[in-house]
Amino acid sequence: MYAVIETGGKQYKVSKDDVIRVEKLEQEEGAKVTFEQVLCVNDDQTLKIGAPYVDGAKVEATVLKNGKGKKVIVYRFKRKSGYHKKNGHRQPFTELRIDSIG
Questions:
Q1: Which of 15, 16, 45, 63 lies 20 to 30 Å from 73, alpha-carbon distance?
Q2: Which of 31, 93, 32, 91 is nearest to 67 (CA)?
Q3: What pTM did the predictor assign?
Q4: β-sheet bridge partners, residue 88
Q5: Phi-psi domain of 43 (left: phi exceeds 0; alpha: psi -120 through 50; beta: other)
């Protein structure tokens, strides 16, 4: 059984007991999160596709941790003019464990 959920402007294919990293959610560690924006649900026999969301479907998850990803270096350069600019960025994330799909 799997579902496709939408959060943070992205879509994730999830199954029970999966651990995923999503865009940062304002939740504390150990908190329960419910996603009601479910795009499709497959229960190994039927595939339900929403328009845009499946009615009555929800995915429950537990927050494992909040953190920051690896540093991404942004380097800008223009040749012949001596222009160089270096910048770094660490994207915040929330790690979730999927508890149930209903």
A1: 63
A2: 93
A3: 0.84
A4: 73
A5: alpha
